[in-house]
Amino acid sequence: MVLGISTPFVTMASNMEAGLGPSEGEYTLLTFFIEPKLFVETTVHRYLWGYVDAITEACNTLTPEKCPFFEVGLMMGVSYLLLLGLHEVYALSTTDISAKLLSV
């Protein structure tokens, strides 16, 4: 398990400070439904590749056009293959990819 900072909480707070996020009234309404937390405890894999966050889930429910997703993660949207340096995936067989994954 890892204790990490809640990216949605920090994003929401900085957007509120800049006047781009929810108003104080909207934030108060949000706290009736959830208890926003600065830190989250989850597995390393979920923290990196995606976990369900209460703020993100509430945002998706209330304004799906602004938050079209339920999960958040530091590496969400990044391909495992790109991280492994496999830029020319079309030229690789599944055996090549498996060998590369096993070597990591």
Short summary:
The chain contains six helices and four strands. It is mainly alpha-helical and 104 residues long. The chain folds into two domains: 2-73, no CATH class; 78-104, no CATH class.
Explain the overall architecture:
The chain has helices at residues 7-17, 24-33, 44-49, 54-62, 80-83, 94-103, and strands at 2-5, 39-42, 51-52, 71-72. Helix content is 48%, strand content 12%. It has 104 residues and is mainly alpha-helical. The strands form 2 sheets. A two-stranded antiparallel sheet has the order 1-2. 8% of the residues are buried.
List the helices and strands and how they pair.
Blueprint lengths: L1 E4 L1 H11 L6 H10 L5 E4 L1 H6 L1 E2 L1 H9 L8 E2 L7 H4 L10 H10 L1
Antiparallel strand pairs: 1-2, 3-4
Protein name: Niemann-Pick C1 protein
N- and C-termini, Cα separation: 21 Å
Number of strands: 4
Gyration radius over CA: 18 Å
Give the strand order, joined by hyphens, for the main sheet.
1-2
Tell me the β content: 5-15%
Based on Cα principal axes, name the global outline: globular
Broad structural category = mainly alpha
Search tags:
6 helices; 2 domains; 48% helix; mainly alpha; Niemann-Pick C1 protein; 4 strands
